Amino acid sequence: MKRNRLIICRQWVARMASIIETVVALVVLLAILVAGVRVLFEVKDLVLAPDVDEAFTTFLSSAFNVVIGIEFVKMLAKHSPGSAIEVLLFAIARQMVVEHTSPVENLVSILAILLIFVIRKYLFVPAFGAHLPGEDAFGTSSLMAAREQALRDADAEEED
């Protein structure tokens, strides 16, 4: 009976976390839309700017931020290692392109990208939290779940 409550509590916590995660994704998506409109206005500023280099850097920074935001929302929606890796790649690329980093920082960024690609090639798993066939999301096997259901049924009969 106590184990049943624990499973129900875990399922409730997982649902609440999923709802909060979805709300955060929607808020970020709204912010991306606002930032996307701002990027369009920065194109106009780019044309009219006396210092084109500074305006272009600002435009690139804003555009990369929108792209990183989109990838972040996709990561929240998909729950896959691939989407997390894409967010990291875009963030590192943004740092290299927009921030005009030193040669040492560029080398570290390139090595980080190389490491991400090596991890993706050799250590990549299809999905985080994937469970084996015959198991539920909590790692409970079908046989265990059937046993727990039988125990719950027996407890319900005793209460009647």
Automatic annotation (TrEMBL):
It comes from the Bacteria. It is a multi-pass membrane protein. Pfam families: PsiE (PF06146). InterPro entries: P_starv_induced_PsiE-like (IPR020948). Keywords: Cell membrane, Membrane, Transmembrane, Transmembrane helix. The chain crosses the membrane at residues 12-35, 55-73, 104-123. It is found in: Cell membrane. GO terms for cellular component: plasma membrane. Its main location: membrane. This is Transporter. It comes from Allofournierella massiliensis. The lineage of its organism: Bacteria, Bacillati, Bacillota, Clostridia, Eubacteriales.
